[in-house]
Design goal:
This protein is α/β, with parallel strands linked by helices. The chain folds into 2 domains: about 50 residues, no CATH class; about 220 residues, 2-enoyl-CoA Hydratase, Chain A, domain 1 (Alpha-Beta Complex), CATH 3.90.226. Helices cover about 40% and strands about 15% of the residues. InterPro entries: AcCoA_carboxyl_beta, Acetyl_CoA_COase_Trfase_b_su, ClpP/crotonase-like_dom_sf, COA_CT_N, Znf-ACC.
């Protein structure tokens, strides 16, 4: 071994030992290495290319609510593992692992607080919890969020992120599609706004139900939005799909959504929309 190789190995050993594993984040878009602190302060958006990373429900609530002050609504109690499902693992074990990792009960969390000075209910799906998949717990949480909004005469804003229905709950997960659609009808009958923010990715049964029924449809830049996957569609129609198909910008261009808003501008845009949809009446 040469002197140069000895020095190089020694330096590598020192760097490996003294550099924390979570100090850097590699942007999936431009592959730039970013300090994690800088990345988190920028709302998990790459400062170089604008790639929007996935974030959890608590991080969104902290950013959205006035002064970061909110209260989380208790998750509804539902039947767990109703089909006693098992694949390579028991469904009960998968749930336990997801809860331990995330600290949350399931993939959809609702919170209530002041948002632009107005009482608002916001729901957020977390893709890190079993792919944000929709089962009994997600459907029940969505309905609970809608009914809380009706009780408080406030808007309901949902941030979607899902791979679709939760296969371990079979037909029970698919039944959440008409169930959540009926809940939206209750909100509209009450004359309250329902705003959807589509985040990466929003697919499957979630897209086929409550994700595309908003009074206003907003998406974050670059978000994947669709029902079936691109490869499935291509194999079905036997044609090559255009570049950017199922991305937020493509959907905006073809009239599927109303706007694409960067995360840094999202809070102010939502507040402006709510002021338009629910104007405060002047005192007599």
């Amino acid at each position: 071994m040469t002197w140069l190789e000895k020095v190089r190995n020694k330096i590598t050993f020192i760097v490996k030992r003294e550099t924390p594993d979570n100090l850097w984040h590699r942007c999936p878009g431009c592959k730039t290495m970013i300090f994690n602190k800088e990345y988190e302060e920028n709302l998990s958006v790459c400062p170089k290319c604008g790639y929007h990373g996935r974030i959890g429900s608590r991080a969104r609530f902290d950013f959205l609510f006035d002064e970061g002050d909110y209260s989380v609504l208790p998750p509804p109690v539902v039947a767990e593992d109703p089909l006693k499902f098992r694949d390579t693992k028991r469904y009960a074990d998968r749930l336990k692992a997801a809860r331990t990792k995330s600290g949350e009960n399931d993939a959809l969390l609702n919170a209530q607080g002041l948002f632009g000075g107005r009482q608002t209910i916001i729901g957020v799906q977390d893709f890190s919890f079993m792919g944000g998949s929709m089962g009994l717990a997600v459907g029940s949480a969505f309905v609970a969020g809608i009914r809380a909004a009706i009780r408080h005469q406030s808007p309901y804003i949902i941030f979607t992120a899902a791979g679709g229905a939760r296969m371990q709950e079979g037909i029970l997960s698919l039944m959440q599609m008409p169930r959540t659609t009926a809940a939206i009808a209750e909100l509209k009958e009450a004359g309250l706004p329902y705003i959807v923010v589509l985040t990466d990715p929003t697919t499957g049964g979630v897209t086929a139900s409550y994700a595309m029924l908003g009074d206003i449809q907003i998406a974050e830049p670059g978000a994947l939005i669709g029902f079936a996957g691109q490869r499935v569609i291509e194999s079905t129609i036997r044609e090559k799909l255009p570049d950017g198909f199922q991305r937020a910008e493509y959907l905006l261009e073809h009239g599927m959504i109303d706007m694409v808003v960067p995360r840094s501008e999202l809070r102010n845009r939502l507040i402006s929309l709510m002021d338009y949809l629910l104007p405060v009446s002047e005192p007599a």
